[in-house]
Amino acid sequence: MPVPRVLVVAPQPFYQDRGTPIAVHQLLLALTQLSYEVDLLTFSLGRTVPIPGVRYFRVPNLFRVRSVPIGFSLNKLLLDAVLVPALFARLKRGAYRCIHALEEAAFPAVLFGRRFRVPVIYDMQSSLPEQLAGQHAAFRGRRVQAALSRSERWLLRNASSVVSSAGLAARVRAVAPETKLHEWRYGSTLAEAAPEEVERLRGELAIHPGRPVVLYSGTFEGYQGLPELLAAIPRVREAVPEACFVLVGAEESGATTVQRGHAELVRNGALRVVRRQPRERIPCFLALADVLVSPRAYGDNLPLKIFDYLAAGRPIVATDIPAHRAVLDEESAVLTGIAAEELASGIVRLLTDRPLAARLAAAARASAQERFGWQAFVRSVSELYQEVDGGR
């Protein structure tokens, strides 16, 4: 019996250490563990990570694009324009069990899937109307949002199956209640950091032993709530003068902007801004923290870092929004409003109430092990693909 082959279409620079490519990497590992062979159609940008059973097909960089920022951009549109005919060509040449298409690649995948009679899984990492409105004023108008919502509804209703980021299920059910829906629950693949590595990092950052560390890890995009977190720092230090905030994940320009805008916090040792790090270094940063924060201002999709936060076994402060509520509750985190004073209050609470911090940290780690471990993720991929196979 031939080994089933899947076409994964990722309109991303793969591989890069950021949200969606990390999710794609986990998907590829799970599929190969389940004995699928995978063809990955993706952009020419990114690092090739060898995975047994995965073949790379990179679209040509006809427009000489050098980088693709997170979210909507002209560079992404240019590469998408080349991806579409490459997708058609792959379907003409190969016999696939299904197409697993991420984000905007699902639109041509559904159209071509009908022609070649191949089922399509739409991997919904974010909601298109919400994402575009959050990033660009041009997409916030009523008519534009209505058109985007109609496009999203068409896609949700015409894909064979939908798998959404945690937090998006309610939106999918409201728009397309008849759609076959699964929700991702990723398992952290990070290894534990050795104590000596953590101490070495503390030295690199010039943080004296014993100083409490409040750490944020992720992108510096506007929706992440970093302005509110930065505004909370003086309030936290009024109660805990030694507290040191470490923000990890800035692009070079973003790091410079934050440092210039908060020069006094940098000068007095209250703030460290660290540029984007290789994923293998993230466990050291998480282990350095006394409190992990996710001050996300808006967005229905759960940030992938939350699964790493849980696995790290550190107390978490997160804004009380539906995306966080998809995984977190009062038993595993302190949930606050987005205002600076509310974030500060939650952080101070964990820095000063050690029994509470220890209880939440233990609950977070237990949740990661019991609900979001690697094997649980592999089972969820298996169930998704069995459903698609059964519908053929």
A few lines on this structure:
By secondary structure, the protein is an alpha/beta fold. 47% of the residues lie in helices and 16% in strands. The strands form two sheets. A seven-stranded parallel β-sheet has the order 3-2-1-4-5-6-7, with helices on both faces. Strands 10-9-8-11-12-13 form a six-stranded parallel β-sheet, with helices on both faces.
Describe this structure in words.
With 392 residues, the chain is an alpha/beta fold. Helix 7 packs across helix 11 and helix 8 packs across helix 14. The strands form two sheets. Strands 3-2-1-4-5-6-7 form a seven-stranded parallel beta sheet, with helices on both faces. Strands 10-9-8-11-12-13 form a six-stranded parallel beta sheet, sandwiched between helices. It has helices at residues 19-33, 74-93, 106-116, 128-135, 142-158, 169-175, 195-204, 226-239, 252-261, 263-267, 282-288, 305-312, 322-325, 340-352, 354-371, 374-390; strands at residues 5-10, 37-42, 54-58, 98-102, 120-124, 161-164, 181-183, 213-217, 244-250, 271-275, 291-294, 316-319, 334-336. Helix 12 links the parallel strand 11 and strand 12.
